[in-house]
Amino acid sequence: MGRGKFKGKPTGQRHFSTPEELLAGTSRRPRTFKRVSEEAEHEEEESGEESGEGYGEESDDQTEKRKGTQGIIQYENPNMVKPKNLKARDIDLEKTTELSRREREEIEKQKAHERYMKLQEQGKTEQARKDLERLTLIRQQRAEAAKKRDEEKAAKEQKKAEARK
Asked: Where does the source fall among the domains of life (predicted)?
């Protein structure tokens, strides 16, 4: 059958489920939609039980039927980490958590830097000594330059005073 000038997408045509397929459960929609609706119904049932409406009903729906081999095969994934839910009363405040290697190294690095800066301020490190020597040398040069300028200025004033006389 000719489609004209433009071709369709390579993924194919859209498929819409008919109401009959939805009722039969053979539609191609993701199973997550079904789970979400089941959870919503389950929450409604719980809220109904709390209010006292569902007193005479039996709860056969709570036993979950698994499809296929899921009901037969029980598996334990060793790689799956189960979340440990701790309650507030079970938490041990005195227990110290161990830091990772990177965290320990980072803390040691910060402490070493602080110690170095403290020694630097006191002038006890090699770099601080060199800096202080440089500063004293610069101060001497500046003092000599200022003294020389003062002498030159005084000499100019003397020449002006002699020229006026």
From this structure: Eukaryota
pTM listed for this prediction: 0.33
CA nearest to 54, candidates 39, 44, 65, 64? 44
Closest CA to 37 of 26, 22, 53: 22
Contact 28, 15 (CB under 8 A): yes
Instruction: Name 108's Cβ contacts closer than 8 Å, sequence gap at least 6.
Output: none
Residue 6 has pLDDT above 50, yes or no: yes
| pLDDT band, residue 35 (cuts 50/70/90) | low
Q: In angstroms, rounded to a whole number, what is the distance separating the alpha carbons of residues 164 and 157?
A: 11
Q: Comparing C-alpha atoms, which of 40, 19, 39 is closest to residue 29?
A: 19
- Specify the pLDDT at position 54: 44
Dihedral, 57, 62, 67, 71 alpha carbons, nearest 10: -130
165-146-152 Cα angle (round to 5) = 25
Highest mean pLDDT among 8-17, 53-62, 81-90: 81-90
Structure tokens at 155: 């000499």
